[in-house]
Amino acid sequence: MIDIAVNLTSSQFREDLELVLARAQEAGVDTLIGLASDLEEARQLQPLAEQHPGVFITAGIHPHYASGFDASSPAQIEALCRHPRVVAVGECGLDFNRDFSPRPDQRRAFEAQLRLACDLGKPALMHCRDAGEEFTAMVSEVRGNLSGGVLHCFTGSEQELHQALELDLYIGITGWVCDERRGAELARLVPQIPDDRLLLETDAPYLIPRDIRPKPKTRRNEPRWLPHIANKVAELRNQSVDTLSQHCLQNAKRLFQV
């Protein structure tokens, strides 16, 4: 299995990352894509990917940090993307829910990274929260030149799902779908995702599946829980977990060329 989004540089993994990676392998999650949310994280990920054959990485600036995106940022991201283990530009996008960066800065950073992904022939790993209309409009402008993209950690509306599918984007599903309260709408939408557009992710250390039993002692999520998410998604889609996992594996390989 491929976990398409793990925050490997998180301080929550600082003390035992090697054990986390070993547990993932034991669970059958043999490939991870480590997310960069800023330039420093992108730099930290590179030696980690060099040390672990199953780790691939991204390079980009998250909308939360878009206020730090300046004239030198595109060239720095481009240089980082030259590393052979970098498989996508991102995590980039728009977040109008928290607005940690001003919206004009978010738009400017997202547009630049989309164009960079087009120029480099790499897919974009994208974030969108409460910004569906602007996100759709901005991606639409470049979609013809973009090799591919995934709307990571999807928790949006039915309209946003179908807008993303019309753009021929992949949809990343996390353990949010395992929460019978907050994830009920996502659970309803998951069967509407075509087999060839679905990807699975943990977004660890965040979003631990709420229905894991027995409950883990810590609220930290890990890539080893990806099969648990796969079981839930397969159940919702009335598919065998083997069939679902095979579709998601092939989708991830196709998008990220891993």
How would you characterize the overall build of this protein?
There is one protein chain. By secondary structure, this protein is α/β, with parallel strands linked by helices. It has helices at 17-26, 39-51, 73-81, 103-120, 132-142, 158-166, 184-189, 226-237, 241-256; strands spanning 2-6, 31-34, 55-59, 86-95, 124-129, 149-151, 170-173, 198-200. An eight-stranded parallel beta sheet has the order 1-2-3-4-5-6-7-8, sandwiched between helices. The longest helix has 18 residues, at 103-120. The radius of gyration is 17 Å and the shape is globular. It starts with a strand and ends with a helix. The mean pLDDT is 97.
Task: Offer a concise description of the structure.
The chain is of the alpha/beta class and 258 residues long. It has helices at residues 17-26, 39-51, 73-81, 103-120, 132-142, 158-166, 184-189, 226-237, 241-256, and strands at 2-6, 31-34, 55-59, 86-95, 124-129, 149-151, 170-173, 198-200. The mean pLDDT is 97.
